[in-house]
Design goal:
six-stranded parallel sheet, 386 residues, alpha/beta, 15% strand
Length: 386
Amino acid sequence: MNKAFAGLRVLDFSTTIAGPQCTRLLADMGAEVIKIESPEGDMLRARPPLRNGASSYFGQLNAGKKSVVLDLKAKAAAQALEALLANADILVENFRPGVMQRLGLDYPGLSVAHSRLIYCSISGYGQTGPSSQLPAYAPVVHAAAGYDMAHLRYQEGRSRPDYCGLFVADVAAGTQAFGAIAAALYQRSNSGRGQFIDVSMFETMLGFALTELQYAQFDVAPPGRPIYGPLACADGYLMVAVASEKSFQGFAQAAGHPEWVTDPRFEQYVERRAHWHELMDGAEAWSRRFSKAHCQAEFDRCGVPCSPYRTVAEALADPQVAHRQSMGVVTDAGGSFKALNPPFRMSDADTGVAGHAPALGEHTGQVLREAGLSAAAIAALQAHAA
């Protein structure tokens, strides 16, 4: 099948996670993504797991791209960048606001000669405003946006926020940027003009606290006690989501207490939340006698959403992963590894991850030759960057 973005060219000035997440998705859709790296390379190239010096962490975010090494602070790079911009559709960067302007690569400057260019900047707090110049990585943004404290409120008996090991703000902001770029491409097909896209990680994270975002605006009591938590079984825990009246009825049936459906404590949603611990204590009197597998089978039979708590390795072993072909094979200097395909499928387009993660500067000569630079100019740039 065709790739939806085949024929588009992307100049990727981004590093670490948020920008590369966006441009990985663009590459998956078939765009030619040219990753512009400093002579030192993206810092994730040194992050484990490493195999023969190649990072699969870096590789999963940069598969399908071409790597070109340029020292953006060197005057000699200007000719190469202008040649690359001549045929670029999209530019993505995630430096701190002001860096691209100092390099002479800001949108107001470039858009004069490149009016069709779609230029996307991803930053911690957005390009303008009192917080725009603050340094920001995902864990800091999680804290600043209230995400961590909102999560903590559901952890009864605890007052210290969690450690951060999952960089939600980076991945989510990169995905938001991908969607915004797709929208800008559609608009350009009608207007003929590109535009500037300003993606805020901070605002991205605010969007995750859906309930809290509304409660915070009014002088009302905060949401009630948490209702989604672990249900103890004989050999571990299940997450059970009793989110609707139908699922509550199934929950009562699976636990052997059909009378709960008409119990005044549980019959209505508001009363059920107020007596949630009584409900769960009653359910655990049943579930603690059986294995996770047995309880899950009963919940599945009664239409109650549930799952055992898994490790990522256990999740990857789920037959659904194989059925959906969720993982694609990527090669790099260290051999091969698997990377997650985009979580969507299209009936008339291939959405799989492209199969190669580039070594640092692997495509410098090829890309610059195709852009029209002479052999002497390319050699000079490579010598300067060495």
